[in-house]
Amino acid sequence: MERRTFLVSTAAAVAAAGLATPAMAQDKKAVIGVSIPSATHGFMGGLNWHAQETIKRLKATYPNLDFVLATAGAVGKQVNDIEDMMATRNIDALVVLPFESEPLTSPVKAVKDAGKWVTVVDRGLAQAGIEDLYVAGDNTAFGRVAGEYFKANLKPGAKIVVLRGIPTTLDNERVDAFKAAVDGSGIEILDMQHGNWNRDKAFSVMQDYLSKHKQIDAVWAADDDMAIGVLEAIAQASRQKEMWVVGGAGMKEIVKRIMDKDPQLPVDVTYPPALISTALEITALRFVSNTPVYGRFIIGSTLITPDNAAQYYFPDSPF
Amino acid sequence: MSDTALSRPAGASRLPALSALGPLLALILLVILGAVLNDNFLSAGNITNVLARSAFIGMIAVGMTFVITSGGLDLSVGSMAAFIAGVMILAMNALLPSMGVGVPLILVGMAIALAVGLLAGLANGLLVTRAGIEPFIVTLGTMGIFRSLVTWLADGGTISLDFAVRQLYRPVYYSGLFGVAWPILVFAAVAVAGQVAMRHTRFGRYCEAIGSNDKVARYSAVGVEGVRLMTYVLLGLLVGLATIMYVPRLGSASGSTGMLWELEAIAAVIIGGTALKGGHGRVWGTVVGVLILSLIDNILNLADLVSPYLNGAIQGVIIVLAVVLQRGKSSSA
Amino acid sequence: MSAADTSPVNASPGPVLELVDVRKSFGPIEVLHGVDFALRPGEVHALIGENGAGKSTIMKILGGFLAPSSGEVRLDGRPAPYASGAQAEAAGVVVIHQEFNLAPDLTVTENVWLGRELGRVFLDHRAMREGTRKLLDELDSRIDPDARIRDLPVSDRQMVEIAKALSRNARVLIMDEPSAVLTHREVEVLFRQIDRLRAQGVALLYTSHRLEEVTRLADRVTVLRDGAVVRRAMRGELTEDGMATAMVGRDLEDIYPARRHEAGELALEVRSFSVPPLVHGVSFTLRRGEVLGISGLVGSGRTELAEGLVGLRAASGEIRRNGAPVRIASVREAAAQGMAYLTEDRKERGLLLDKNLRENLTLSTLPRFGSPFISAAREEAALTRAIGDFDIRAPRRDMAVGNLSGGNQQKLLLAKTLLSDPEIVIIDEPTRGIDVGTRSQIYAFIDRLAREGRSVIVISSDMPEILGLSDRVLVMRQGAIAGELAGERISETDVVRLVMGTSEERADV
């Protein structure tokens, strides 16, 4: 259960999980609907993988649990998925990672109003108090931890560039926290363009940064997929010695390079796709034990350094 | 109506119609704008970047020009590129133990990419011509199929080329001949060959005839279905070629590889003056269209003109303007 | 210029619609040179002239589609209050276009009522269908009001166009060659409707290349040549020969070529040939140097037979070329057997209207112009030859063929078809919608082909054409050969008798 290491504020719940026994009085199978975005980029790929693995494991452990997994490539599809689950699969609980907050709020609320259990993962709904359980990464910490690293390791007057993700609230939270953290350090942010969490896009954006700016001391790529594209662009310009790169999320290839003390990749910031596993496990507890599992579980973002990288390295995960 | 029968051939020196120059004009304006906004814009490095980046979409768009000219459409090219890249990398990784790191392995990988591209194009083409399904629907379907297949092959993550192979393969994207990067050279060769094929071979003429009116083509002894099939196969091969140039760049493929390439390729074709309904193809126009699309991105990155949130809007405006310029001129000409 | 000066007060009713000294220029070129033209209630006024004489321009100006460069359009003696086709229609001036203005994907009913649909919020489909039914009944037409225009043969489309115009309750009806694509019978129905409208006091403008129709219908004839009126006549004042002479501006010898007498050996034998679903069990032979006419109603299977022979339609049966059995499954294979087909539908099946002359000319024989690269010089040379041989008149060589007149399009199509040097040429409706001058040229070309030892099959709805050209005539009815006439036996009555069958039923539909 290596992913337990991610849990920061859920220690109690995890402890309870350990106590819970599969022996349940009820015969009826509980059905848990799981609705997540499809694997369109590395992070979501990892999240999908973790979701499938966890479902497999939970099914084996708890025979009276059943899961319905639906992945959606767009908001509308996700809304349809949830409506279908309610209408045809007779779910008892819904674990949902909303594509976007606003459009998903009322469909999820409808599930709640029907008396079902609702676990919301990672992206909050627009209206408070709908979900029974909220499991999320900490976007503010994600930006702040990175920013603090930049502040601590760069001299005043240093110049950096930033690649942003797809324009979303989540991206704004991260970037705002990052900016707040480097504020007052004398570090100059030269440029902030969207790389859309995509390798190819990040590659071209970085190429253009390199054409435009003579001096760049460090890059906050904010995502490991983007970091890969950025590193290629830097290599193409033969400017590897001039700058280092910080990505984010904890992709296995990146973690490996940190373990190997790559000077271009000193650290990474976690934003674990395994948070879906946490959400599923805790939700499962609701149906197989009497453990109280209401509440908010925020999984913090921590810094991966060469010293601790080994514990974040999952060679089997696709991400 | 005048009754003069011209007995001499039309002057070969006739200048192309103003409408044909619309996209070129837009391109020149963009270059001037870029040069004014940033000193590094015209640097060799930046020009190489822009051209090399254009190369993938460019090769695909040249193929797309033939498909659209003959009245077809292919939405699957982006997914197809991702799928080909995935299969190519997996195959090379699998063959690594038996073949070892070396040029033969790379060549086998390239052959596989072309073969998969050919088969994918053939599948699209056969569904369109033999099964008689609308190209939009066929390729919308295969778009989803290819995209899912690559995501499945990658287990939702990323397929990465073995590090040692990658080091050997890397120069195919990053180095070149006489200081010109390989992707640019290959793109140029494809563009020239495409232009010649469109203007000076039967295949190009037949594509235009079929797109213009396929009944007339059929009544004129043109093998309509065969030519249509060929356009999809050609496009599949060019997607394979683009993938060969793409894989060494990042050495990986994932579900997000080649995202929206189909729309960029189609947009480039239309900006270049090829009619979306078919019948009139302009390969060099497509090249200009691709360059326009790349340049917009490049200039927006180089100059902090607007909020990055508005990048999409600027792109949209320029695309529409380029086409308006062209249509406006053609109606007055 | 006041209206009162020109309107005479006498027995003849005053003009309802009138052009006074109208000139029209396109760019620097003046195409109408001061034309006076009037339409009177209860009168059919025929406007005749060669293609390009200015008839279309006059009709477009009358119908509100074009504005004159100078001069005046008067409706009821006052300046016409309309500036567009739609406004003209609202004022009771309706044009039946030669180029059908029908939406191919809508049904007959939807087209008839397009723009003036019945019903308030929701469409009243029933009322519209009933209305259409009634209009079509008046035209003796059995077209299904729910059929899509796309699925209708050309003649039916023309009937729909006429029905649509009738439904407009026109005071002035302008008909641009309505009979060009109609069969004999349909033309008769059309004439009855025209007589009825005339009796109701509608002012009619009629154009046709078939001068016998003009003689039959017109109360008044105006002959146009090169954008000016060259002759005005009342009923009976002008013979058909006189009309033709006035149109062309010179004496026309007989437009049909002299008969050839020597027919060569057998070039083609067709036995038990069927083209499902329409044509079944057709057998005939064709000799070198012979012109074989195929007559019959539209829908009798003539075109289907021809398309089956050249591999455009799936067919069964036996074809022998020079005595040896051959299989033909595509136009290409037909070409390899020295057979070529010239379609009746030159705009949709014959020519690429948005391409230039050169690309159209060489499309079906492109492999002869170089491989892998096409030699533009050889194409240009071929075009120069074709322009000379077939007297194709084009303002510019690089213009789109869609902008050529119908006659020149047909000559180009003929040149294209003959570029493959075929031994057997099947020509479907060689002169549809073509003026009399060009027509005699095309007849001469057909005659020349036969004299060169080629075999020609001419499919035509034009009776004089069949009679004037053919050495032998096959008549088709309901997908089979109804009879064959040769030599002295070819007469109009015999052909018509075979076309119609003993009972005067309509062949098909």
TrEMBL record, chain A:
<keyword id="KW-0732">Signal</keyword>
<dbReference type="InterPro" id="IPR028082">
    <property type="entry name" value="Peripla_BP_I"/>
</dbReference>
<dbReference type="InterPro" id="IPR025997">
    <property type="entry name" value="SBP_2_dom"/>
</dbReference>
<comment type="similarity">
    <text>Belongs to the bacterial solute-binding protein 2 family.</text>
</comment>
<feature type="signal peptide">
    <location>
        <begin position="1"/>
        <end position="25"/>
    </location>
</feature>
<dbReference type="Pfam" id="PF13407">
    <property type="entry name" value="Peripla_BP_4"/>
</dbReference>
<dbReference type="InterPro" id="IPR006311">
    <property type="entry name" value="TAT_signal"/>
</dbReference>
<protein>
    <submittedName>
        <fullName>Substrate-binding domain-containing protein</fullName>
    </submittedName>
</protein>
<feature type="domain" description="Periplasmic binding protein">
    <location>
        <begin position="32"/>
        <end position="262"/>
    </location>
</feature>
From TrEMBL, chain B:
<feature type="transmembrane region" description="Helical">
    <location>
        <begin position="283"/>
        <end position="300"/>
    </location>
</feature>
<feature type="transmembrane region" description="Helical">
    <location>
        <begin position="102"/>
        <end position="123"/>
    </location>
</feature>
<keyword id="KW-1003">Cell membrane</keyword>
<keyword id="KW-1133">Transmembrane helix</keyword>
<feature type="transmembrane region" description="Helical">
    <location>
        <begin position="259"/>
        <end position="276"/>
    </location>
</feature>
<feature type="transmembrane region" description="Helical">
    <location>
        <begin position="174"/>
        <end position="196"/>
    </location>
</feature>
<feature type="transmembrane region" description="Helical">
    <location>
        <begin position="50"/>
        <end position="68"/>
    </location>
</feature>
<dbReference type="InterPro" id="IPR001851">
    <property type="entry name" value="ABC_transp_permease"/>
</dbReference>
<keyword id="KW-0812">Transmembrane</keyword>
<keyword id="KW-0472">Membrane</keyword>
<feature type="transmembrane region" description="Helical">
    <location>
        <begin position="75"/>
        <end position="96"/>
    </location>
</feature>
<protein>
    <submittedName>
        <fullName>ABC transporter permease</fullName>
    </submittedName>
</protein>
<feature type="transmembrane region" description="Helical">
    <location>
        <begin position="229"/>
        <end position="247"/>
    </location>
</feature>
<feature type="transmembrane region" description="Helical">
    <location>
        <begin position="306"/>
        <end position="325"/>
    </location>
</feature>
<feature type="transmembrane region" description="Helical">
    <location>
        <begin position="20"/>
        <end position="38"/>
    </location>
</feature>
From TrEMBL, chain C:
<keyword id="KW-0813">Transport</keyword>
<dbReference type="InterPro" id="IPR050107">
    <property type="entry name" value="ABC_carbohydrate_import_ATPase"/>
</dbReference>
<feature type="domain" description="ABC transporter">
    <location>
        <begin position="250"/>
        <end position="503"/>
    </location>
</feature>
<protein>
    <submittedName>
        <fullName>Sugar ABC transporter ATP-binding protein</fullName>
    </submittedName>
</protein>
<dbReference type="GO" id="GO:0005524">
    <property type="term" value="F:ATP binding"/>
</dbReference>
<keyword id="KW-0762">Sugar transport</keyword>
<keyword id="KW-0067">ATP-binding</keyword>
<keyword id="KW-0677">Repeat</keyword>
<dbReference type="InterPro" id="IPR003593">
    <property type="entry name" value="AAA+_ATPase"/>
</dbReference>
<dbReference type="InterPro" id="IPR003439">
    <property type="entry name" value="ABC_transporter-like_ATP-bd"/>
</dbReference>
<dbReference type="InterPro" id="IPR017871">
    <property type="entry name" value="ABC_transporter-like_CS"/>
</dbReference>
<comment type="similarity">
    <text>Belongs to the ABC transporter superfamily.</text>
</comment>
<dbReference type="InterPro" id="IPR027417">
    <property type="entry name" value="P-loop_NTPase"/>
</dbReference>
<feature type="domain" description="ABC transporter">
    <location>
        <begin position="17"/>
        <end position="251"/>
    </location>
</feature>
<keyword id="KW-0547">Nucleotide-binding</keyword>
